[in-house]
Amino acid sequence: MPVDARVVVIPQEAGAGPEVLDVALPEPSGHEVVVKQYASGICHSQLHAIHNPRAAPQVLGHESTGEVVAVGPDVTGLAPGDTVMVTWVPKDQASARRRGGPLRLELGDGRTATSINVFTWATHTIADEMFVVKVPEGIDVEATCIIGCAVITGAGAVLHTAGVKAADSVAVFGVGGVGLAAVAAARLVGADPIIAVDLAEEKLAFAKRFGATHGVNASDCDPVEAIRALTTDEQRFDILRQPLRGVDFAFDCIGHQSTMEQIHQATRSGEFGQSRGGTAVLVGVPQRSLELDTLHLFIGERAFISSLGGSCEPAVDFPRFLQWHADGDLDLDALVTQQYAIDDIGQAVDDLENGRIAGRSILVFD
Q1: Which of 108, 110, 199, 360 is deepest in the core (most CB within 10 A)?
Q2: How far apart are CA 14 and CA 253, in angstroms?
């Protein structure tokens, strides 16, 4: 039978802010699952969806915790009563290779809202089972809701996309929710140094709680030169016989044109004849194209790569990150710095857009 839900909708009209509507979710069919949600993360990337042109109303949000209330006839491995996490990344290889499709939600007033895959800014959601991961009962259902995007994106970029190892040097540009997860993962694998780069001293101090060994305030100095100064190696040399300077891995968790350029410049050259150079990893969603200094890339044997969803497999990685939280290795309670009710979504979006969120903000549903 249909399930009544309250859902955040972004109208089609340009410049229109979020509205909260009462919507009847249909009975699930096929591989669909209906989830009563406990909490949902508020991701910075959703601001792009709000501000960019759209062909129809949109429903947003892509990380949450909840409880299954109904399943379609083709669903396997999930049942009503299961504690689950909803994410935007297919949970396993088999799911990823099954063709899904854009989600369409009838709003009841003649309009149809769309989403690429899921929506979690809602008291209840309906999603393909490929995006719903069963997790143990009794988890902290509020703080862990950010695992489905913030944690997999930041920590996964370190663990999977880059493959950071003990003693590797790391710089993380932008230490919001995603960047802090990257910092925490770098600490857990034994990276050193771990250099946090941001524009506010309070955010840099906060990053040290998660494992940053140094903070660079990009509003006060050239962050590339600061990173090079912190990482000069007088025992190894590039092709010009100059000491190596720069990090093994630089992560851009923002996606601005300036930070994309800076992570490229902040990576070290290869040790000529002995090792390849450092790797710049684009994690934040870019909004503009980038022109790289290809000579810098070539002569130092550097690499510039991207990470989408931290290259994660949620069915495998969610248990790992839940265990990190349970063991105190990933303090999600500290990472979640602000909570909102669904009716306060307008304020939540404004706070996020204007830099008033130190870590990650979430919606908590009754």
Answers
A1: 360
A2: 27
Distance in angstroms (rounded) separating the CA atoms of residues 356 and 95: 37
Six-digit token pair at 25?
A: 């979710």
Q: Structural domain boundaries of the chain?
A: 3-141+331-364, 152-309
Lookup: tokens for 223: 């962050």
Look up the CATH superfamily of 152-309.
NAD(P)-binding Rossmann-like Domain (3.40.50.720)
Residue given tokens 């399930």 in the structure block: 3
Closest CA to 19 of 2, 3, 7, 32: 7
Distance CA 319, CA 324 (A): 9
CB 151 within 8 A of CB 330: yes
pLDDT tens digits for 262-303?
Answer: 999 999 999 988 899 999 999 999 988 899 999 999 999 999
CB 188 within 8 A of CB 160: no
Residue type, 72: G
Residue 13 neighbours by CB under 8 Å, 6+ apart: none
CA atoms of 174 and 358, how far apart (whole Å) = 11
Long-range contact set of residues 311-314: C-beta below 8 Å, sequence gap at least 24? 311/156, 311/157, 311/160, 311/161, 312/89, 312/152, 312/156, 312/160, 313/89, 313/91, 313/92, 313/93, 314/85, 314/87, 314/89, 314/90, 314/91, 314/92, 314/133, 314/148, 314/152
Q: How far apart are CA 317 and CA 144, in angstroms?
A: 13
> Mean pLDDT of successive 10-residue segments in the chain (366 residues)?
93 88 95 97 89 91 98 96 97 88 89 95 97 96 96 98 98 96 98 97 96 97 98 94 97 96 97 92 92 92 97 96 95 96 96 92 94
Q: What is the DSSP letter of 159?
A: I
Which class in CATH covers the domain with range 3-141+331-364?
Answer: alpha beta
Q: Which residues lie below 8 Å from residue 112, measured CB to CB, with a gap of 6+?
A: 56, 57, 104, 105, 106
Which tokens go with 130? 């490929």
Q: Which of 167, 169, 148 is nearest to 232 (CA)?
A: 169
Question: CB of 91 within 8 A of CB of 78?
Answer: no
Which residue is listed with tokens 């923002």?
A: 254
pLDDT of residue 6: 98
CB 10 within 8 A of CB 105: no
pTM given for the model: 0.94
